[in-house]
Specification:
By secondary structure, this protein is α/β, with parallel strands linked by helices. The chain is built from nine helices and six strands, in the order H-H-H-H-E-H-E-H-E-H-H-E-E-E-H. Strands 2-1-3-4-6-5 form a six-stranded parallel β-sheet, sandwiched between helices.
């Protein structure tokens, strides 16, 4: 009987050892990816430092979980019940994360530009292409993405979609694209650029007035916003740039204020000769904002992004 009991205790002890060794192998297997992720997000300050402390505590807790099976915790790290209760789930979360997700975050750019083209322009960036290029070239590793929407005003070449329907679909497309990117790359600084109708849908997504808007982390990730020839233009807004003293054909109401976005992050370019964002009669001037104000817009974006 005593022999059986001793044998049973030995079996339990061996099972405990195997469990701990499995934990150690898990910790070692994810340590490299976890460390890389910490390095990538270290700039986030307090939140990341808490995450780093929890990771280190979890790692050392696993190594010291059973006396005599592994080295003691690293000097200066105390593993108490409360710390372990927080730390172990953190490491477990890293261990269970999809390796593709970790790799994606490691490859996230510091800056990403979203841009929306003007009405009837073919798919892509339209006239905003020049400014998009300037921003991407100014930041090593920066990336860009064109908003996929009809960009139509009832014309046959864009499928006959009405202007209002196109703007509504475009606003939804902006919100979806920004939210999706921010979920993949939460630390990337985002720039929004919109030209003509593209400016209107960026305006809707950032400043409201047309249903759903950006919110939460995705909104907070937006660091600079540029509208060029935006039909929502109305005189008197703090972020207006250019010579227009009137309003566009889809003007905001008098007394309007941008919300939920921060108006300090916006520059909106419109000249008096423009028949779309103002009341002018020179349609060609509507296409000149990148040529005329591109460097000014880039300087504003760089000021907002800082040392991104």
């Amino acid at each position: 009987m005593a022999s059986c009991a001793r044998r049973e205790r030995q079996d339990h002890r061996q099972a405990d050892r195997l469990e701990v060794y499995a934990d150690l192998r898990t910790a070692q297997a994810v340590e490299h990816d976890a460390h890389a992720l910490l390095q990538h997000t270290r700039e986030e300050g307090h939140v990341t430092l808490l995450f780093e402390d929890a990771y280190l505590a979890a790692r050392d807790y696993l190594f010291a979980r059973h006396e005599g099976l592994a080295e003691a915790p690293a000097e200066g790290i105390a593993i108490g019940p409360a710390t372990a209760a927080v730390a172990v789930p953190v490491l477990a979360g890293i261990a269970s994360a999809n390796p593709v997700d970790i790799e994606t975050r490691q490859s996230c750019p510091g800056v990403h530009v979203f841009s929306a083209r003007e009405t009837t322009a073919p798919a892509g960036y339209g006239t905003s292409q020049g400014l998009v290029n300037m921003v991407v070239q100014a930041y090593s590793g920066a990336t860009s993405e064109a908003i996929n929407y009809p960009a139509c005003g009832g014309q046959s070449q864009c499928g006959g979609v009405s202007y209002d329907q196109s703007a509504s679909q475009g606003t939804t497309a902006v919100i979806s694209a920004v939210n999706s990117f921010n979920q993949r790359c939460p630390n990337t600084k985002l720039v929004l650029i919109g030209y003509s109708q593209g400016g209107q849908i960026m305006d809707n997504a950032f400043c409201g007035g047309s249903g759903a808007t950006l919110s939460g982390n995705a909104l907070n990730a937006v660091k600079a916003v540029i509208f060029m020839g935006d039909p929502h233009n109305v005189v008197g807004l703090s972020y207006n740039v250019g010579t227009c003293q009137a309003q566009g054909f889809a003007a905001r109401p008098r007394g309007y204020k941008c919300s939920p976005g921060n108006p300090a992050l916006i520059q909106s370019y419109c000249d008096s000769t423009d028949p779309y964002c103002c009341n002018g009669n020179d349609a060609n001037s509507h296409q000149q904002y990148v040529n005329k104000y591109g460097q000014q817009a880039l300087a504003f974006i760089k000021k907002q992004l800082g040392s991104a």
